[in-house]
Design a protein that fits this description.
The complex is a heterodimer. By secondary structure, chain A is of the alpha/beta class. Chain A has 2 domains: 8-94 and 152-256, 3-Layer(aba) Sandwich (Rossmann fold); 299-323 and 343-510, Rossmann fold. Chain A is 32% helix and 25% strand. Chain A has helices spanning 49-56, 80-85, 103-107, 123-136, 152-171, 191-204, 217-223, 248-256, 313-321, 346-349, 369-374, 391-404, 421-435, 451-466, 478-484, 502-510, and strands at residues 8-19, 23-34, 38-42, 64-69, 72-74, 88-91, 116-117, 120-121, 179-183, 209-214, 226-231, 234-240, 277-286, 290-298, 302-306, 328-333, 336-338, 352-356, 439-443, 470-474, 487-492, 495-500. A 6-stranded mixed sheet of chain A has the order 6-9-10-3-11-12, sandwiched between helices. A 6-stranded mixed sheet of chain A has the order 18-19-20-15-21-22, with helices on both faces. In chain A, strands 2-1-4-5 form a 4-stranded antiparallel sheet, with no helix packed on it. In chain A, a hairpin with a 2-residue loop joins strand 16 (328-333) and strand 17. Chain B has one domain: Orthogonal Bundle (ABC transporter involved in vitamin B12 uptake, BtuC). The longest helix of chain B has 26 residues, at 47-72. Chain B is an all-alpha fold. Chain B has helices spanning 2-9, 12-19, 23-39, 41-44, 47-72, 80-98, 105-124, 128-147, 170-188, 190-200, 202-207, 212-237, 248-261, 272-290, 296-315.
Chain lengths: 511, 324
């Protein structure tokens, strides 16, 4: 059966989904996928991208909506196997690979029943088929390699091959065009490997259609044919990149849904940047992540590391935080050289605090607010005579922070996992506010939270700056840099391109 | 009408309260007490059984308190029975040299064992389960070898558990300050807070400036020390001798008390006070079964089965707590 180019292979119409009767995850969303094209689905965290994809592969049932496959109305799939029958399969962001299987075992995982003869698995036949498929899809590995022996990008390719294969096996037809959902496929990859994976996906276009889920704008611009933008569960834009002229800035505006004048930088905030250098980074290199990074951080200064996602900005930050090691160059904190493999806990002793909005690594989710704030401030709440924690002092400290940052929670005893994203982030900021380290690293400090909470956090950070704390900021939101930073290091493909003042930065962003 | 009435009687808020710790476990405890009292009131609700239950409780708690600290950092310490057996042998061997001080071998030996496990586990990164299990096996073998397979009593220490108050076993009285000490260390000191942090998220603990390796070793050391202190009492209580043959029940029951109490095997939530509650529930279960006058093998079978049932019911209230 041949489907003409202009009719849709798969169409989703008017899908809505509500969680717990309150949170509206998707609201009347329609998208279409044609034969042999790459469709981008972009949006911020929590915009509904993942929910939509999970509905397509049968993880959640939708509340409302229709699904058309080759122009015929079909019910929504109830599980991934049924989704594969409708031609849909997904490659997850992470944890999709089982490292201790051989490539052929992984390819046929869950489809072994097709290779059973007299209740015995036909291993030779599986290997033979696996080799044929790897060759057809140009995956550069052998069927008997272990998955963990392959580089990350090749693992992704095998995953894509597996997704295509599962559609073929479920449909019982090798000619069918599968629709493969790629959920942020490049997230774990280094800069070079991303390129490799993309040229592979472009090559695969003749065999399959792709839904490419991402929040990395340049990637989407470069590799997709059409792009759908989701914001707060609604479809807000739908561009055909081959016909329309769209800039990265247009797409950015559609994703975040506002211009860049909502919270203006107040020049009234006095900058107390002294000459004293607290952190020096010299020719810092980690192969595959960043190269030759050098900068100085002064006391009371806020420095931004700006660049597209995947440029290495997060890795630089995590190196300074002590989460990952570096390979070359030197890191000097307050005049002392830091060893590349120094254990993580030394960093706080050196005066470095780290806070990530998205990952929440430093927050203990099963703990109440009060404990999360006191964990880095235990010295302050011990009794005078004995090394015993005073619950009263602990509670007072937490209540002070809660009031100051306007954290909305029933009490300081509320467990953190039950808090909203904004309150969680405020707790993280709050404990550092109380601790006041010399250097505070902020990674996406306001990601996925509402405007009000954002402003509270900005205010707290600006206040910390005033008291002489140096900060380094990494964010997805350019506006944040112009609000908080005194200097912005622009980074691309792991290398520093230029260093801008906030005024220059705003000009560049406006242009 | 009936349904309406029932709805009013049990409000959602009440259900929510009943689902949170420690209520499910307390319900399990009450259920067992009521059940056994109903089955044989003449034997279960007696002063004798009351004091025997308290003895069982003391035995389970004193074994389980130390390992609870290790469980809280997300590891396992099964060496307690090994310390009991080999420590007893060392007390007997050193008696002629150290005199009355030789009982102090227990806490020192526990401390040393804990420290050794900690260093081995942290530096060599071996799973704690297999490490402590092997050590238990080694100690048991050594104890049996050194004594020639016969328990060697040291009668001089009987005074430790001489009866003080009628019907209240002295071992139980001794266990109270030890429980309080363990709870105090875990809840009100820096060490305790840091150990909870490590169990909750190791990376987060590192980011909060906690020396994870050091505090992990400290957790094992504390575990050995608590076990050693508790064993001074248990040694005296069990006729001033330690067994020289390894019984699986001695290993499993304290472990069951910890898990029943609600300390998550993944670490981070729970604590010594929960272990005490778990030990009390388990003591009631074990006593109830013994009173049935069954074959010992049947008692083992039934107590294993009942522990599983009790853990499933007891764990229901913990779902919200163990989110990581």
């Amino acid at each position: 059966m041949v489907t003409p180019m202009d009719t849709s292979l798969l169409e989703v119409k008017g899908v809505s989904k509500t969680f717990d009767g309150v949170v509206r995850a998707l609201d009347d969303v329609s998208i279409a996928i044609r034969q042999n094209e790459i469709v981008g689905v972009v949006g911020e965290n929590g915009a509904g991208k993942s929910t939509l994809m999970k509905i397509l592969v049968g993880v959640y049932p939708p509340d409302k909506g229709e699904l058309y496959y080759r122009g015929r109305k079909v019910p929504f799939p109830k599980d991934p196997r049924e989704a594969a029958k409708r031609g849909i399969s997904i490659v997850y962001q992470e944890k999709g690979v089982i490292l201790h299987l051989k490539v052929y075992q992984f390819l046929f995982l869950g489809h072994e029943d097709k290779y059973v003869e007299f209740s015995r698995l036909q291993i030779d036949k599986m290997k033979e088929h696996a080799r044929e498929i790897l060759e057809e899809l140009h995956v550069k590995c052998d069927a008997e390699d272990f998955m963990y022996e392959l580089p990350l990008s090749t693992q992704k390719m095998v995953e894509i091959a597996r997704a295509i294969l599962s559609v073929r096996l479920e449909c019982g037809d090798a000619k069918v065009t599968p629709i493969i959902i790629l959920d942020e496929p490049t997230a774990p990859l280094t800069v070079e490997r991303r390129r490799e994976l993309f040229s592979y996906i472009l090559d695969m276009k003749k065999n399959a259609s792709f839904i490419f889920v991402s929040h990395i704008i340049p990637e989407v611009m470069e590799f997709t044919d059409r792009v759908h933008v989701l914001r707060d569960g609604k479809l807000v834009a739908d561009h055909d990149l081959s016909k329309e002229k769209i800039t990265e800035e247009d797409l950015f505006r559609a994703i975040v849904g506002r211009g860049s004048s909502e919270y203006l930088y107040k020049p009234g905030v006095k900058r107390v940047v002294s000459e004293k250098v607290v952190l020096t980074v010299k020719n810092l290199t980690k192969n595959g992540c960043y190269y030759d990074i050098s900068f100085d951080l002064h006391k009371g200064e806020c420095m931004g590391i700006f660049g597209p996602a995947g440029s290495g900005k997060s890795e630089i930050m995590q190196t300074i935080a002590g989460l990952i090691s570096f390979e070359g160059g030197s890191l000097i904190v307050r005049g002392q050289k830091v060893k590349a493999d120094e254990p993580l806990h030394f960093r706080l002793g050196r005066g470095i605090g780290y806070f990530s909005g998205e990952i929440g690594k430093e927050l203990f989710l099963n703990w109440p607010i009060v404990k999360n704030i006191s964990i880095v401030n235990i010295e302050k709440i011990l009794l005078r005579m004995l090394p015993v924690i005073s619950f009263n002092a602990e509670k007072n400290m937490a209540e002070k922070i809660m009031k100051r940052l306007r954290i909305r929670a029933p009490s300081v005893k509320t467990d953190c996992y039950s808090l909203s994203g904004g309150s969680k982030q405020k707790v993280s900021v709050g404990k550092w506010l109380e601790r006041s380290p010399d250097i505070l690293l902020l990674e996406d400090p306001t990601i996925g939270i509402d405007v009000g909470a954002r402003e509270d956090i900005y205010e707290a950070i600006l206040e910390m700056k005033k008291s002489g704390i140096s900060t380094i900021l990494v964010s997805d939101d350019p506006k944040e840099y112009s609000i908080l930073c005194d200097k912005i290091v622009f980074i691309k493909d792991g290398r520093i391109q230029k260093v801008l003042s906030p005024e220059e930065f705003r000009k560049v962003m406006a242009a | 009408m009936k349904i309406l009435g029932r709805n009013k009687l049990i409000t959602p808020a009440m259900i929510q309260t009943l689902k949170t710790y420690p209520y499910p476990l307390i319900l399990v405890l009450i259920a067992f007490v009521v059940m056994f009292s109903g089955l044989y009131p003449g034997r279960f609700l007696t002063p004798l059984n009351f004091s025997t239950t308290l003895t069982q409780f003391a035995r389970l708690t004193l074994f389980a308190l130390g390992p609870t600290i290790v469980l809280l950092i997300g590891s396992l310490d099964l060496s307690y029975v090994g310390i009991w057996m080999l420590g007893g042998v060392l007390v007997w061997l050193l008696m002629p040299i150290l005199g009355m001080f030789s009982i102090l071998v227990y806490p020192l030996f526990g401390l040393a064992t804990g420290f050794l496990i900690g260093v081995l586990q942290v530096k060599a990164k071996i799973p704690s389960f297999i490490l402590t299990l092997s050590l238990l096996f080694t100690f048991a073998g050594l104890a049996s070898w050194l004594t020639g397979g016969v328990p060697r009593p040291v009668r001089e220490y009987e005074f430790i558990t001489e009866p003080l108050i009628p019907r209240i076993p002295t071992a139980f009285l001794w266990s109270i300050p030890i429980i309080i000490a363990a709870v105090f260390i875990m809840k009100r000191t820096r060490i305790g807070t840091y150990l909870y942090a490590i169990g909750s998220s190791e990376e987060g603990a590192g980011l909060a400036g906690i020396n994870v390796a050091k505090y992990k070793i400290l957790a094992y050391t504390l575990s050995g020390l608590f076990t050693g202190i508790g064993l001074i009492i248990l040694f005296s209580h069990f006729g001033c001798a330690a067994p020289v043959d390894l019984k699986l029940g001695n290993v499993v029951e304290p472990l069951a008390a910890m898990v029943l109490g609600g300390t998550a095997l993944a670490g981070g939530s729970g604590g010594p006070e929960r272990t005490a509650l778990g030990a009390l529930t388990l003591a009631v279960i074990i006593r109830g079964l013994y009173l049935m006058i069954l074959l010992p093998e049947v008692v083992d079978f039934l107590s294993g089965l009942l522990i599983v049932v009790a853990i499933v019911i007891g764990a229901r209230g913990l779902k919200g707590v163990t989110v990581t």
